[in-house]
Amino acid sequence: MNDPNEQAVESDVPRQTFELEECGFLEVPKKWRKFYRHWGGPGDVLGPNEIICPVCKVVIRSKREIRVGDRLYCMPCMSRMVVVLAEDGSLDTEVIY
Ligand SMILES: [Zn+2]
């Protein structure tokens, strides 16, 4: 099983890793479903391995903790993005065109 968001770059602190399970995201082929889920709205909480696609608002999930500089691919809307640090210190994304 290939993670479309597997990253080659490593920093000093090992990343947390996560076991992903399907969350009923049917918009992509079965092989990729566990890497995405629908955002649950207010009250939903993102894990350290999850980030919201700024384009289609789907939650992108990685097997590893997401960090600044990571490049992510959103298969449902085919957007590529890079993870950046928001002003409030949280993780944000910028779409790469
Ligand atoms: Zn998207």
Topology (elements, then pairings):
Blueprint: E1 36-38, E2 50-52, E3 58-61, E4 71-74, E5 79-85, E6 91-96
Antiparallel strand pairs: 1-3, 2-3, 4-5, 5-6
Overview features:
single chain; 97 residues; mainly beta; 3-stranded antiparallel beta sheet; 28% strand; globular; binds zinc ion
Q: Which consecutive residue ranges, at least 5 long each, have pLDDT under 50?
A: none
Helix content: under 10%
User: What is the number of independent domains?
Assistant: 1
Molecules bound to protein: zinc ion
What is the terminal separation in angstroms?
A: 27 Å
The overall pLDDT, averaged over residues, is: 92
Arrangement of strands in the largest sheet: 1-3-2
What report would you give on this structure?
By secondary structure, the chain is mostly beta strands. The chain has one domain. Helices cover 0% and strands 28% of the residues. It has no helices and 6 strands. It has strands at residues 36-38, 50-52, 58-61, 71-74, 79-85, 91-96. The strands form 2 sheets. The protein has a 3-stranded antiparallel β-sheet with strand order 1-3-2, with no helix packed on it. It has a 3-stranded antiparallel β-sheet with strand order 4-5-6, with no helix packed on it. The protein is globular. Residues 53, 55-56, 58, 74, 76-77, 79 line the site of zinc ion.
Structure summary:
The chain is mainly β and 97 residues long.
